[in-house]
Amino acid sequence: MLLDTSVLFPLFFPEVRSSSVERIVTRLAPPSITALAPLELHDAISRAIRDRRLDVTRARAVRVAFAESVAEGMWRVIALSPGHLARAAECL
Question: Residue 62's closest CA among 76, 73, 79, 47?
Answer without folding.
Answer: 47
